[in-house]
Amino acid sequence: MKAESEFRNFWQDTAETYLPTTLQQSNASIKKDIIIVGSGIAALTTALVLQQEGKHCIVVSPVNLADANVKTGNLTTIPGIQNFQSKNITGSKLQLLAKSKREAIDLVEGLINKYNIDCDFRYLTGYLFAQTAAEATLLEQTEAMATEAGVISTETNNLPISLPFKKAYRFDFQAQLHPLKYLAGLATAFESEGGVIWTGCSVTKVEENNGITVHTTSGTLHVQQVIYAGDGDHLNKTPFKGINRCCYNIAFVLKEDLYPEGISYDMSAPGHSFSTFASNGQKYIVATGFENNDNHDGQVAFNELEKYLRNFFNIERVTHKWISEYHIGADGLPNAGLMPGHKDIYVISALGNNPIVNGSIAAKIVCSLIYNKHSGYEELYNPQAVVQNGI
Fold first, then answer.
1. What is the C-alpha radius of gyration for the chain, rounded to an integer number of angstroms?
2. Is 155 exposed, middle or buried, given 0-12, 13-18 or 19+ CB atoms closer than 10 A?
3. Domain boundary at 279, 311, 329, which?
4. pLDDT category, 387, cuts 50, 70, 90?
5. What is the pLDDT of residue 2?
6. Phi-psi region of 55 (alpha: psi -120 to 50; beta: other; left: phi over 0)
7. What is the DSSP string of 240-287?
8. Is 236 helix (H, G, I), strand (E, B) or coil?
9. pLDDT of 332-355, one tens digit each?
10. With a threshold of 0.90, does the pTM exceed it?
11. Same domain, 337 and 230
């Protein structure tokens, strides 16, 4: 498989790389309350929420913040089908799951408004549709479970895209933003609150003894808590099992100005999504599909996806192709809480294919735990439960 850097990433191409303003000292020895290890939205959301509540935080990442691995900028409250297939996620737990996703979008919108983050945030209608009889049956089951969860949907005979379908439902009040513009806005806000960001910096050793000493390639940090946030290389330090998947993404321009409004998802396995984004006055459709967890040749997968898309869209030119990777937990849910076996080390991981929403609610959960507050979601996303249940 080709490395992601060999393809053009739409998000990185349409946003500037964020460069931290804080001076990074070499071989420094610094005291902070909390270190957050990560480069994505989960890490920066956690850091910002803690910093604005009075904690002194530092974010450490081996890569630039713009290198965060993103697929789309879609924010959805539609529970994933993997949640419905889990015997543990039914009834009140399913309702709590849906409530947490809505609360995550509220958190995102609140931070955007508070810090005037320009990231093209808007609300859109989401569509879930089936193209075969088998998919229609699965869609009906999905819609029934969504209704049980309190996610309101309406059957519709219209889609914003010109694909044939047998059955479709619309879900209002879904959302969309530019993920790297939002990430840069979070970083700017965090630094304006007094937070510190070190990029190009890796954690080499963590020692727990009367506080925590974190050794990094840029110096030594003395902190009270450590938070591993996101599905980066540090995921190897956690005891969780799951599945690593990659997704192939294509952005393209149409010959006519017939761009669809809304976010559309099909019910195929592993599934496709379609949504419109605009950059510098030019509209694009961002499409995803052909996920897998093996070493499938990237160029072959892109060729297959482009061939599929040209069957339904009048494409003038393909502008971007990129691979995004993500991790799905064994129970289908993100992990957010104390790392098993530790009292001051927290983990946010397994953010799946809805990382902005999952990362945001996970950040809220961990921040609440640090302040000994009750978010209401601790048990649902508890990493301890995953290990205790042998998952």
1. 21
2. exposed
3. 329
4. very low
5. 42
6. beta
7. --EEEEEEEEEEEEESSS-PPPSEEEE-SSS--EEEEEEETTEEEEEE
8. helix
9. 788 999 998 899 999 999 888 888
10. yes
11. yes
Please report, for residues 42, 149, 337, 340, the alpha-carbon distance to residue 365 in angstroms, rounded to integers and kept in the order given. Answer: 11, 20, 7, 16
Same structural domain for residues 292 and 167?
yes
DSSP letter at 314?
Answer: -
Cβ-contact 156, 169 below 8 angstroms: yes
Checking if the pLDDT of 87 tops 60, the result is no
Does residue 49 carry a pLDDT above 70?
A: yes
DSSP helix/strand/coil, 219: strand
d(CA 10, CA 106): 26
Q: What is the pLDDT of residues 214-246, one digit of tens each?
A: 999 999 999 999 999 987 655 555 556 667 788
Summary mean pLDDT of the chain: 87
Measured distance CA(252)–CA(246) in Å, rounded: 20
Any idea what the CATH number is for the domain that residue 271 is in? 3.30.9.10
CB 11 within 8 A of CB 180: yes
Starting at the edge strand found earlier in the chain, the sheet holding 203-208 runs: 28-31, 219-223, 212-216, 203-208
Candidates 18, 22, 352; CA nearest to 183 is: 18
Q: What value does the mean pLDDT take over residues 100-111?
A: 97
CB proximity list for 270: less than 8 A, separation 6 or greater: 245, 289, 290, 291, 292
**How many CB atoms within 10 Å of residue 222?**
14
> Residue 368: pLDDT above 60?
yes
Residue whose structure tokens are 């996703």: 101
Q: Of 281, 301, 329, which closes a domain?
A: 329
Q: How many domains does the chain have?
A: 2
Higher-confidence residue of 102 and 297: namely 102
